[in-house]
Amino acid sequence: MTSIVSKLPQVGTTIFTTMSALAAKVGAINLSQGFPDYECSPQLIELVNQAMKDGYNQYAPMAGNKLLRDEIANKVKRLHNAEYNPDTEITITAGGTQAIFTAISAVIHANDEVIVFEPAFDCYAPTIKVMGGVVKSLELEPSNGYRIDWGMVKKLITNRTRLIILNSPHNPTATILHQEDIDQLSSIVRNQDILILSDEVYEHLIFDGEQHHSMARYPDLKEKSFIVASFGKLFHATGWKVGYCLAPEYLMNEFRKIHQFLVFSVNSAVQQAVAQYLKDEATYTSLPAFFQQKRDYFRKGLIETKFELLPSYGSYFQSVKYGHLNNESDIDFAMRLTTEAGVACIPTSVFYTRGTDYKVLRFCFAKKQETLDEAVNRLLDFKL
């Protein structure tokens, strides 16, 4: 057998695959992986069917369906008063993860340093390492609401710092960036050769009247940023794997050099359908209220358990602390909840490079009401 030197020797199967497989095996309610258990809009499905009948079955343009890029430009203009040229600054991708991989690939060279805030979505660090980059992680703690210590960020910056990765609303902590975070970030990157990758796939899942602080809203940050978004998260169709990236032309030129050889183009019929569907602003402006109702309903049920609920300001996740109940590792406890209580969740230590265990679990509440009811009932019946 020919020997291979792995580029990712420590990487195995993702926790999402592991927990979903375990949930399926034991018949547990799957609140681990972030996907809805209800259908997307029938109108959107009809639009996909019609697009297929209308002949949108061959390769789309490499950058994406022109109508869709135009609609995205209109949407960003309405929401953030930001101008993006649909021809040169918007690219349709095969989901958010592909956009993140492509952006990192486009700008990270060997020994470039990337600042990552942990707990972090699990695709960031492996992609940086594959490109020969160095992960400079800053651990965030539940004790201070997972807020970023910008003084520590300044200490991490060196002459090799090339990229800062941000995620708001944040997975897995459900926190969001605030104006003071934007001010600190702007101060740090000003006059520095540092780029930003802003993972905004949960941009419309933000609660309690809070503002989503997209990098697109701030001209000085916009000119340094790749912004990643997801239609799968937006329209309850995660299996379609369609997203997009926004970036100024000089960055998008490099992004497309990688994109064209990675996937070239994305599902043609779905792009055409999404373009038509986006014409109605209510398809996304109604989402905060839709998901806040689910968050509030789920939290009301969880309060009856012995878990300590952490705040959920955005995304469709609710985290809980259990250290006051037992001293099991979060991985062991998550496995036991799945097999014995019949409710699958995600242990958040897997989102830390060092496996830091704050005894915090993440549940997904993008589910039908009856699913949430049954999950809460099972947790109430389980002897925590």
TrEMBL record:
One of its GO terms (molecular function) is transaminase activity. It holds the Pfam family Aminotran_1_2. InterPro entries: Aminotransferase_I/II_large, Kynurenine-oxoglutarate_AT, PyrdxlP-dep_Trfase, PyrdxlP-dep_Trfase_major, PyrdxlP-dep_Trfase_small. It comes from the Bacteria. Residues 29-379 form the Aminotransferase class I/classII large domain. The keyword Transferase applies. Transmembrane segments: none annotated. CDD domains: AAT_like (cd00609). Keywords: Aminotransferase, Pyridoxal phosphate, Transferase. The keyword Transferase applies. SUPFAM superfamilies: PLP-dependent transferases (SSF53383). Gene3D superfamilies: Aspartate Aminotransferase, domain 1, Type I PLP-dependent aspartate aminotransferase-like (Major domain). Its cofactor is pyridoxal 5'-phosphate. This is Methionine aminotransferase. It comes from Mucilaginibacter ximonensis.
